[in-house]
Amino acid sequence: MSMRLRIRLGLLAVAIGHTSLVFAQQPTPPTEAQRAEQAAMRERQASMPDTPGTGQFPALKEEVVSLPDHVVYRPSNLGALGSTKLGIYLFGNGGCVDDGASSRLHLLEIASHGYLAIASGRIRSGPGATAPPSPVPPRPANGEPSPLQVRTSYKDLLSALDWALAQNADPKSPYYQRIDPKAVAVSGFSCGGVQALRVAGDPRMKTVVVMNSGLFTDGERVALPEMDVPKETLKSLHTSVLYVLGGETDIAWNNGMDDVKRIDHVPVFLADLKGVGHGGTYWEPNGGKAAATVVAWLDWQLRGDPRAAQVFRGKNCKLCDDPAWVVQKKRID
Question: What is the pTM of this model?
Fold first, then answer.
């Protein structure tokens, strides 16, 4: 493994915080101060209350027996949807960890706007935790990350989609005919963003959202199997794609920028939020600016909302005129 890659993965470990030891090879073991900082961050995040989101459908998170090892985020009152059909938002976690609550503020915000958001794993942190944090397995003697450190699979995203579509067709399900099977987005943070790209070729997908992520350049050796995905995978994209990055301090910035440069056959929008780094705005109230941008993208791409389209389309699009963002786009206008 090159020193450059070791450094990049090490920085990513620190940035993710509670997923750090599960995700990435560090060039040196963390210091006591770093361990204390990470523990304090995990404690702060776990103590934050769930929020219902800012949309018209206050949201909740739950585990359901019929979909094990997943966390479902949905409007708390499905009857309040009226004629609104739920879009589907499949989400891969940062670090590919099995904590489906690790981006809960982001996912609750999405769900509050009338979406069924599903993350891999159990509720392992924060309010209503149903399972303890997964233990960190020991590293092999050669120092490489253990394959056991990756606790979710890209296949989990497809399992969630299969479940949602089956629920929509089941007269006994509370989701019966409440889901739009043509309004499907796949998304993910960091390692989870790579999982999303891996299944993006599925014909049921309507759009893709890649958050603080991107594929490693061919030739870079990646030990974690869920991230060992060639750039050739980008050719399988058949839908629009939104990339949300965190500026040049985002450890995935180079990878994401390179992806956008290579994609030229489908519409792609790059929304680069300056200065927030790899941690993005997941732990800001209601998921922060990034979640608001994703909601607008989903409303446009899955529902054809013309007001949401103004966030992205035209020379003077709302993100184009917002100094917090740097944007690039192809085939959008």
Answer: 0.90
